[in-house]
Amino acid sequence: MKTSGLSFDDIPPLDIPLRFHITAPVFGLLAALFLFWEGPEAWMSRWTIGSLGATHLLTLGFMAMVMIGSLFQLVPVLSGQAIPAMRWVAPWVHVMLTAGVIVLTVALVRPDTVTFTVALALLGFAFAAFIPPLVWRLVRIRGASDAIFTIRLAAISLLMTVGMGIFLSVGRGWPDLGIAFRSWTDVHVLWALFGWVPLLVMGVSYQVMPMFHVAPAFDSRLARGIPLSVFVSLLLLSHARSDYLVAPIVTVLCGALMAYSATALRVLAKRHRKRADPMIGFWRTALISLALAAVSLWFAMATPVRLPFLRESGAPLLIGILMVFGFACSMIIGMLQKIVPFLIFLHLQRRALGNPDAMSQIPTTNEVITDRDAHWQLRIHLIACAGILAALVWPAFARPAALLLAADFGWLFRNLISAAGEYRRRSQAIGPAPNLMESGA
Amino acid sequence: MTLPSKPGLKRLDAMTTLLEFMTAAHRRCDEALAAAEGEVCGKNWGAAAQKYQEFNAAMACHFAQEEDVLFPAFEEATGMTEGPTAVMRMEHEQMRSLLAQLASAAGEQDSSRFLGLSETLMILIQQHNMKEEQMLYPMCDQRLEEIDALIGRIEAVGSDSGLRSPKPEEGAP
Ligand SMILES: [Fe+2]
Ligand SMILES: [Fe+2]
């Protein structure tokens, strides 16, 4: 076991994670504007410019933005090793990712080779600069806990998603190559939505639910069996070409996702920490969305039955909305209300250590984002979820739904900006850092 | 520990790695914090003060076990005195500062202040525990000799004030 260079204290400067966290809701707002602009047209199928654009603004601009920012924060702390040149790399990753998402959206709206090349180059740089060092550390984190086992499967799924995404962009940018991109898109989407995203959430929940909510641990056989079933069925599904094979594999996949949802809801119900915490509401929203998405996926892929209320092309949209917005965004929006205030507290407290006068200036996390504001976030988010599902059934509701989406991300942006303002005010009151622990790199 | 086991079989006992022993202590502290919060939420200030005391005692005991026994043993075995243990000690200081503020919030029966502080402390504790459970304790299990004796010395510092699961003679099921 390597111990040299183990510092335990590579807390990155606050501006590194925060620049990602604060940019993310802006892309959420852009997705909402985009949907508003396109109106009912966007909801006709998942191949419309509106839905393609909004999907990538949400998955890359919002989800990946928050995940990368959090990994820059978490990985050095959990692995005990600094990311080389992080202070230099992180701002560049942020700029490239931001520019890349914008250019990709433009490229999806008016496809041409040059725009796609630029988007690919920018996103390629952003991901190439962050994925290898971070994933490498993630994989090497000691221990064989259920959480780490699952997060490793998630990391492999991410590689599949990104690899296939690059392949597809090449196909779209250079149509002469004749890549069959609808069928490959299915594989890309399956690994992204049903591999990377739920596996990462599973791994995180194994660790986070027992610790932060004082809940019982997940049963270890389920905690490994479920992600393994998900991963193996995705592998099989990527190659299965006949319906006879697809139906049973999809049944296993959906069964595993439902089993996770049920198990996690039961673990939450058994938590010993009973205080009113908006995060519980975000967890439940996410887990119920996951279960609904699994049921919809099963109907769409394993049965000839058509889902009620929906148009022919509606099922993939429903599944995508439930997974991206109902599942992943719920988790991320909820967690941001916890992570950002905590990071602000952590940095302020470290600066004030050994200075009794300054200690009174340190806010608790609930003073940085109040419980009231966080509860409002949950309410707005639930209304936005309902609004978007309604737009799927009644196209006339498309524009109001886009406005609800804008309200959701707008409120998140407001909470994060006011948290950053609170940090600035308090840190001025505390005075300059003593440079005990935050210095050096 | 509470199971009657032959000395030779002790390493096979589920509770004998340092990681498992100390992780169980972390979970008992978490339970104690949750119990205190529960009373504060219900504004049962008498019970809340009592539960807060139990939680505070459990934390103080755990800090002492680490700072007085485990960390010195780690520092001696690895020669790293400015490394992980220095950071862990600093984080204990951060937690002690919040524990003191919690005590005054409990004394003033200020529930929103108490719950704000306890939420902050909870996150601080968990990110600290994660580092210990992911890194420090597994390193101790690998690098330190005679873990059983070490656990014995840790237990001698004091049990965390009755939060430990009851001994068989006290009528455990
Ligand atoms: Fe500790
Ligand atoms: Fe500890």
Give a description of the structure.
The complex is a heterodimer of chains A (441) and B (173). Chain A has helices spanning 15-38, 49-79, 86-109, 113-140, 146-173, 181-212, 220-237, 243-269, 278-302, 314-352, 356-359, 365-368, 371-393, 398-430. Chain A is mostly helical. Chain A has one domain (15-433): Cytochrome c oxidase-like, subunit I domain (Cytochrome C Oxidase, Chain A, Up-down Bundle), CATH 1.20.210.10. Chain A is globular, with a radius of gyration of 22 Å. Mean pLDDT of chain A is 86; it is low at 1-7 and 436-441. Chain B has 173 residues and is an all-alpha fold. Helices cover 72% and strands 0% of the residues of chain B. Chain B is built from 5 helices and no strands. Chain B starts with 17 loop residues before the first helix and ends in a 17-residue tail after the last helix. In chain B, 40% of the residues are buried. The interface between A and B is large, with 35 and 41 residues. One fe (ii) ion (FE2) binds at residues 22, 26, 62, 66, 129, 132 of chain B.
